[in-house]
Amino acid sequence: MSDPQASRFTPQSKNTHERLSTHTVGLVALSDFRKRRAEILEQQEREAREAALAAAPKPDPPPAGTPDNAGSDSASSAVPGPLKKKPKKETKQRPGKKLLSFGDDGDDGDDDDNADKASAVSEQPADRGGGPVSENKAKFKANAAVGLAPKAVTKAALLKEAAERETLRREFVALQESVKATEIAIPFVFYDGTNIPGGTVRVKKGDFIWVFLDRSRKVGEQRRVGHHTNVRRGWARVGVDDLMLVRGTVIIPHHYDFYYFVINKSTGPGGIRLFDYSAEAPAQSTSTNPIPEPPAGVLVTAAVRTAAARARQPDFSMLEGFGEDPRFTKVVDRRWYERHKHIYPASTWQEFDPEMDYLSQIQKDNGGNTFFFAK
C-alpha cells in the first residue's frame, strides 16, 4: 500500500511548482512570490477537500417499513425547521452603572466585554494620591472660552430696569429743554456790499434761524435802517424767506435751530465755531423773586403779564454772546446775493453742510480758483 503522505504531497508540490511557473513571469519581489505561493497552496487544499467529499460513499436510505426507534418525535425533528437563536449571555449589571448600546444584536458580546471592563474599573479602590478616578476627573476640564451663563432675569428686574431708563430719559429731556430755553444775544449787521449796523436780537437756543431773521427784520424796521439813505434798504419790507443769515462765510439754512450747532459744536472754515455757546443748563438763580399774585378781583390782562415777564428778564449785557463782533453775523437779502455771488466777498460764501470737514477744506470760488487769505 502506498504511503498516503507521499501520494498526497508529491503531486501537489509538482502542481504547485507548475502553477508558480505559470503565474510568475520574470523577476518578482520576494514578498509577491510568497503571497502567490500561499494563494496557490490554499487553493490546492480547498480542491483536495472538495475531491475527498465527492469520493466518500453515501449511506443507503432506510427501508420504507422500518420502524423508527426514536419514536414519533424523531420524525418531526428530522424535518428542518427555523433555527433557534442562541440565548444571550446574561451579565450582571451593577446598580447605578447604566450602559447604553447603540449597536445591533450581533454586538452583544462587545457590549458584555465593555460592561465587564467598566465594572472592573469602578470596583478598583480610589487612591487619594492619584488613580483611575483622578485620571478620569482630569480629562474633563472647564472650557475657558465659554462665558459665564447669564442669570435669569425676573419680571421685577425688567420692570425696575425699565423704570430706571424712563427716569434717565426724563432727566435728559428736562436738561435738553432747559438748555433750549436759555436766551442768548446775537449782534448783527445788515449787508448789501457794506456793513449797516443792525442791532442785537434776543433769541433762545432752541429757536430756529428763521425766528432770528424775522426779529432782525423787525429791529431794522424799528431803527429805520436805510429809510433815509437808500429806499432799497428798507429791510422791514423784505420777507423772511428772502433773508439769509451768513455766519462768517457760511450760509445757515432757515430750518436749523441754534441748539443743533451748540450741541454738535459745529465749526466753519479756520476751525472757528459757528455758534460758540455753552451746551450746559444755566444755574438756577435764587435772587429772582417770583411774580406776586394780583389782589382778588383785579383783572390782569395778557399785556400786563407780558410786560411783567419782560421786566424780570436779564439785561442784554448779561446774556451769552452779547460781546460778539456784529460783523461776524450778516443778514443779507437773497436777491442781492444772487446778483453778486460771483463778486468778493459773496463769492467766498458757502451753504452749511453737516458732512463737510471745514478744517481740511480748500476754499475755491465758483470758477474753481483757490482763495489765498493773508494771516
Overview of the structural elements:
This protein has 375 residues and is α/β, with parallel strands linked by helices. The chain is built from ten helices and six strands. It has a six-stranded mixed β-sheet. β1 and β2 form a beta hairpin. The longest helix has 26 residues. The protein is elongated and about 145 Å long. The N and C termini lie far apart (136 Å). The N terminus is likely disordered. It comes from Trichoderma cornu-damae. This is FAM50A/XAP5 C-terminal domain-containing protein. It holds the Pfam family XAP5.
What shape does the CA trace take? elongated
How would you characterize the largest beta sheet? 6 strands, mixed
End-to-end separation in angstroms reads 136 Å
Strand order of the largest sheet: 2-1-5-3-4-6
Number of helices: 10
Class by alpha and beta content: alpha/beta
H/E element sequence: HHHHHHEEHEEHHEHE
